[in-house]
Amino acid sequence: MSFTTSFQNTRSGRALLSAASRLSMGATVLGAAALFVAPVHASAQVAKTAIKAGKVITLNGEPIENGIIIIEGGRVTAVGSQEDVQIPWDAEVVDQPGMTAFPGFVESHVSRGIDRENETLDVAPFLNVRDSIDPVNFYFEDALRNGIVVMNVQQGNDTVVAGQGMVVKPYGMTVESMMVKPRAGIKMSAAPKRGKSRATQAQALRGAFEDLKRYLDEMVQRKKDGDDYDRREALYQGRELEGEAAKGKALQSEAWTIEGFERIPRGEVDEKQEPLLHVIEGKMPVFMWCGSAADVHTALRVADTNGFTKHMTLVLDNSCWKAAPKIKAAGVSVILEDNLAHRERDPITGEEIETFVPKVFHDAGVPFALSSSTDSNRSLWFQAAQCVAAGIPREAALAAATSVPASILGLSDRVGALKSGADGHVVLFSGDPLSVTSVVEHVILDGVHVYDRSKDVRVQQLTDGTRPPGTVAEEPEEYEGDGEDDSDNQ
């Protein structure tokens, strides 16, 4: 079974279409959740898909003119020129000779698509954004329009130790169907939470780990005293104490030593404390928010003291560029907030000084990833284009929105490049992915054609005023009464 899809673009209205694709199509356009972009294929996964494009940007080598991408079972199995790659006889074919195939953007850090960015609790590592993600949130729909194929959803910055995040695809009716990587990291903040000073924030952050150490020491002491409290508590909470959960293991931390901890069955560790235990053992990544250069020093001290520097990524405000040498020395990667230009006035001359933050980290040799906050002028394609305009090589700018965030998320083998074995995610652009005149025409996730711009009802309404049936309220007919005399009721 095969089919070919082709779409024609006209010159007239092209500028309008191009600009409209960069706009957020949120609830202000159409408020009905039922009008979400429908998939082209109803099946959960297409067995084989072949994508023919005029140009394939693999980010794993040189671009391929007139290329073919083969996806089987949700994974890329071949990428090459039409002369070198054979299309399986039973593959569904997407033939777009006038378009550019791209691996799609990777959102390194975002706090959208959830019902609430932060909780009131200072320390809540036991929470999980899995319980907060809304699959029909307009953010995910907009992400498809902007060519984002996976995103790292974390809680917001107004916290001390927040819950656990997860990496998802921007398509699916359930969180399970969207999930790419559960427990993708824990959000922490070295910057003061609302109502805290820098000193009290730092103390609260250190205190979270001091409380963990105290709890583990007490567990060991209870075990030595023959007190079975922790086992009884675990069973009361419904935890299974069999298999690996019934075994003890020495603490695997680069900074901590707790004698006798190997006697503690891991299943007996309280679920409220277990996530931070995973942090100090290097099993759980940390995304640390820093609102100033001073916060960077706090973050690095806390991470070094507790042995998770190697597993930490700094999420930075644009003023943190001043700490670039310190960050370089620590060997950590960074995620930059959406405002890439930092402005300040010289205290002596009063002259405004502008610093393009990604260029500072690029020149310092610090791996950096871009992030986006809106779908118009701060989306990932625009962030990368700004980097190119500021003198950063195109390859490095594209990497900051694809392969670098994929590496930070531990997904280098799955996303960020078109190569054999990667997830079957392909975005088809009308032109260069970094051009303001290009639009996302199609998105394929895991080999499934999930977005088609020509069928996007919100884009159609914005660009040409077309309104789908049933979405426009009809004018009510004027009430003329029932013909009876109502004078007695007045």
Roughly how much helix do the residues carry, as a percent range? 10-25%
**From the coordinates shown, what is the CATH architecture of the largest domain?**
Alpha-Beta Barrel
What do the pLDDT scores average to? 88
H/E topology pattern: HEEEEEHEEHEHHHEHEHEEEHEHHHEEEH
CATH fold-type name of the largest domain: TIM Barrel
Q: Give the helix/strand class.
A: alpha/beta
Approximately how much beta-strand content do the residues carry? Answer: 15-25%
Number of domains: 3
State the end-to-end CA separation.
73 Å
Strand order of the largest sheet: 5-6-7-8-9-10-11-14
Shape: globular
Q: Give the C-level CATH assignment of the largest domain.
A: Alpha Beta
State the major sheet.
Answer: 8 strands, mixed
| Cα-atom radius of gyration | 26 Å
Number of DSSP strand runs: 17
Q: Helix count? A: 13
- CATH homologous superfamily of the largest domain? Metal-dependent hydrolases
The low-confidence parts are 1-36
Pfam family, one: Amidohydro_3
Region (Disordered): 460-490
Domain Amidohydrolase: 392-451
InterPro entries: Amidohydro_3 (IPR013108), Metal-dep_hydrolase_composite (IPR011059), Metal_Hydrolase (IPR032466), Metallo-dep_Hydrolase (IPR051781)
